[in-house]
Amino acid sequence: MRLAQPVPVRPCRDRGGALDRTVLWRRDQQFTYLIDAVSTGGHRTRGTIRGTDTYGTTAVIAAESALCLTAEPARPGVLAPAQAYDPAEFLNSLTAHGIHWTIE
After folding, report:
1. pLDDT tens digit sequence for 25-49
2. Where are the domains positioned within the chain?
3. What is the DSSP track for 58-77?
4. What backbone phi and psi angles, to 5 degrees, belong to 103?
């Protein structure tokens, strides 16, 4: 298969060489997710996840998930991520990408 046009070397730059506004916005964006969980017995736990670039983070999470599954394959069937691999190890793998988490 041949491409109709060559792939740009720097797709995130416009023709004048300036960074695309979307790339700048994503780079500067910060997020915090606050998760409150309550067990059926009434026990409460709060988790926080912080990082930058929500869209780029999605790709990182998919790639790290694939790495977890290749390192230690999960049992067959439909599983939630926390059932397929260790949640703490997975979240720790994201810190190298600027994603930080805490459990209170």
Report:
1. 777 888 999 999 999 999 999 999 9
2. 21-103
3. HHHHHHHHHHHHHHSPPPSS
4. -125, 125
